[in-house]
Design brief:
The chain is about 15% helix and about 20% strand. The chain is α+β, with helices and mostly antiparallel strands and about 725 residues long. Helix 14 runs parallel beside helix 16. It is globular.
Length: about 725
């Protein structure tokens, strides 16, 4: 799989609630601002749309706060905690004084002296009905007692006593952590379940705690939006690492669920050597549910260790991956290494972690050496990369009917000019793309075979100065009937060699950031194309999204070609999969394409597909289920990594993760229809095309067509625009 998912769930969405004589009545609530009063709910929260009276009564949400924790001399553990709503007002655990009963669970763990990970005091023995093996697993305490201190404040006393590993006296000078996680049931109000967790670090004997602090939750949330596991109640890395320790094993598979091992394996997924050799990576969890991670592919390259091991979150041990290499952590990704025999480790056995850092120190003198950074260099991000920087200074002769002349610069990262000769031959490339109008690209005829745009190579004819400033005149003219704003974009790449004088040189293509320059063709004010999504949002998961051989990396550039009239007809005749040749062209309009790609595996689960034939005739099936794809074809269905409230991925209702400027609710009424010859309708109106890319059922298409006038076009905004009864944000709101 390309990204990390499940079938999109059907949902019931609350518009607004009014409590009348114990009943719940649905009614429309007027949208005010981005936030509902001072309660902190956004337009993406279901609670945002509640009537004020209902919101004041239910006070949805859950906030767990740990006041203190204590371990008595005899090992009795207790924790003082509070249950509150998002405004800090007390909640009744039993759901009598305030709506919604709250279930709470408790963890307690410590870090033994000389060790780096937690050891849970509470454990259980789990026996597999498959293998009949028994394994010890860290878990929550059970059988303890609760004392109410005040409304919303409680003291829980654990049944489990603090004991050292293997029994015996516990260490009051060790760092301890108590964790509390819980759920508030508001299903009777059609508000689902609220979840939260909290942790508290302390040293029982007094002093400063030194907790494990390597990766924080905010890093995970870049892709997952809200980390949520085990039904949704475990929401922080700080809590997860209390149970996901070396003491916890899956008895069915024998696999450890130690965080430093299984989280690497999950995210490596299909790239694990063991998986590529034919052994699936699976964990069998609650109720014998099989979680098979063998199909996962990261949206970012796994060599980018620092993408997760961020040094900017405040985590005090964020550099542990550099300073403390271990067999368990490193062997989780490189799982074909046998440290006992030395196999796949240059025949060097390692009986402990003591010598790892002698060879695998943080950074060496050469890239691709045995240092940790060197061994994980992503080639395009090599320090040896000379860089490529574009700018467009001006466009002249850019009126309708003329052939525009573009003045642009090509430099390296140090500001030195790059000549056209340096962009000639091999994989080197430079292109200027002309498209318009910017009100909506597509269908404009530039006299080229490419629909809606023209791409030209300026390398052989551009006039350049030594500082990298060049001038190029297009051979194709702007149409004589053109009006409004048009645009020129620049793209290109170079090749460089890393470690060229060694026996293992590495040849790498690298590209420059695209630049798009809008200009008026009729003297009217320049109006750039609307901004719908941000490349910064894309890179929250992709790190650096750069496609088509390192040529294209800015959405403003992508939409010049991925327009409503463009499809894969120019390459479908060269398809490497014979069946693709018999099918009509596939639309690659940006909105349709990106929505369908990220819906991915859900299309496959519905028996549908979205397959683009790419350059060289490549088969790119973004909707396939993993098992349906031959091993010779690497492209398989995409799992969108955003997590829903209960922890299942593929929550594609979280439009805000990609969209900006509330564009998901501001429809492109009156824009170009999309040529979609493989779709249910072609051409199809723009909003219908975008929305039915995710809502892909025939009934959804029928609904859209019934609300499209042959004279006046789409009427989606009547019901689904901002503030309407079925506002897109309201219909997609979480929980």
């Amino acid at each position: 799989m390309r990204i990390l998912t499940s079938v999109l769930r059907s949902r019931r969405y609350l518009v607004a609630l009014i409590v009348v004589a114990g009943s719940v009545v649905l009614m429309s609530a007027a949208k005010r601002s981005r936030f509902f009063g001072n309660n902190g709910y956004t337009v993406y929260d279901k609670e945002y749309y509640l009537a004020s009276s209902t919101l004041s009564f239910i006070r949805p949400g859950l906030n767990i706060q740990i006041v203190s924790a204590n371990i008595a001399a005899d090992g009795t553990i207790s924790v003082d905690y509070k249950l509150m709503d998002p405004k800090g007002l007390a909640l009744d655990k039993d759901g009598i004084v305030t709506p919604g009963p709250i279930s709470v669970s408790f963890l307690a763990a410590y870090i033994p002296k000389g060790q780096a990970q937690y050891v849970s005091y509470a454990t259980r023995s789990q026996t597999s009905p498959i293998t009949h093996n028994t394994a010890v697993q860290a878990g929550a305490d059970s059988g303890g007692t609760t004392q109410a201190v005040a409304l919303g404040e409680y003291i829980y006393t654990f049944k489990t006593k603090a004991l050292a590993q293997g029994g015996g006296a516990w260490d009051p000078t060790a760092t301890h952590r108590v964790g509390v996680y819980g759920s508030r049931n508001l299903t009777e109000f059609d508000l689902g379940t609220n979840y939260d967790d909290a942790t508290y670090d302390f040293v029982p004997a007094g002093g400063t705690a030194a907790p494990r602090d390597i990766i924080r939750t905010q890093t995970c949330d870049k892709c997952h939006d809200q980390l949520a596991f085990h039904g949704g109640s475990r929401r922080s890395m700080e809590l997860c690492i209390m149970c996901h320790t070396p003491q916890t094993t899956d008895p069915d598979t024998g696999n450890t669920v130690d965080m430093k091992v299984f989280i690497h394996k999950i995210h490596m997924g299909s790239e694990l050597p063991s998986v590529q050799a034919g052994t699936p990576y699976q964990i069998i969890g609650f109720n014998q549910a099989v979680s098979d991670w063998s199909t996962v592919e990261l949206p970012s390259d796994p060599r980018r260790c620092a993408f997760c091991h961020e040094s900017t979150t405040g985590a005090t041990q964020s550099n542990a991956w550099l300073q403390n290499p271990t067999r368990a952590a490193c062997g989780s990704c490189h799982d074909n290494v046998n440290f006992a025999t030395g196999a796949n480790h240059v025949n060097l056995p390692q009986v402990s972690d003591n010598q790892c850092a002698q060879c695998h120190f943080p950074q060496g003198e050469l890239e691709f050496d045995t240092s940790i950074k060197g061994a994980h260099v992503y080639p395009q991000e090599s320090a040896a990369n000379p860089g490529l920087v574009f700018s467009i200074l001006k466009v002249v002769n850019g009126s309708a009917g003329q052939k525009p002349t573009v003045t642009f610069t090509v430099k390296d990262a140090k500001g030195n000019g790059v000549s056209m000769a340096q962009l000639t031959g091999g994989s080197n490339r430079l292109a200027l793309v002309l498209a318009g109008p910017a009100s909506d690209y597509g269908y404009t005829n530039f006299g080229a075979t490419t629909p809606g745009y023209v791409s030209e190579n300026p390398v052989s004819t551009a006039s350049c100065s030594p500082d990298g400033t060049c001038s190029y005149t297009f051979t194709h003219a702007i149409p004589a009937t053109a009006t409004g704003t048009y645009a020129v974009g620049i793209e290109g790449r170079r090749t460089f060699v890393i470690n060229p004088t060694t026996t293992t040189p590495v040849s790498v293509n690298y590209g420059a950031n695209n630049v798009v320059f809008p200009f008026s063709v009729d003297g009217s004010p320049v109006v750039p194309r609307r901004t719908v999504a941000s490349i910064n949002n894309c890179n929250q998961c992709h790190s650096r999204l750069s496609v088509h051989g390192e040529n294209r990396n800015q959405i403003e550039m992508c939409v010049l070609c991925h327009n409503p009239s463009e499809n894969d007809s120019s390459v479908r005749g060269n398809a490497v999969v014979a069946a693709d040749k018999a099918l009509p062209p596939q639309s690659v309009n940006f909105a349709l394409m990106v929505h369908k790609i990220h819906t991915g595996e859900e299309l496959g689960a519905a028996g549908l597909t979205y397959t683009i034939v790419g350059f060289g005739g490549s088969h790119n099936d973004f909707g396939a289920t993993f098992a349906s794809v031959p091993a010779s074809i690497p492209n398989t269905g995409v799992r969108y990594p955003a997590m829903g409230p209960t922890g299942s991925v593929a929550d594609t209702a979280k439009c805000y993760m990609c969209h900006v400027n509330t564009s998901e609710a501001n429809f492109p009424i009156g824009k170009n229809a999309v040529l979609d010859t493989q779709g249910l309708v072609s051409p199809v109106q723009p909003t219908t095309s975008a929305c039915t890319a995710c809502h892909f059922t025939r009934s959804a298409m029928g609904h859209a067509l019934l609300n499209t006038s042959p004279t006046f076009g789409e009427t989606c905004d009547i019901c689904h625009s901002t503030g309407a009864d079925f506002d897109v944000d309201k219909e997609h709101a979480g929980k």
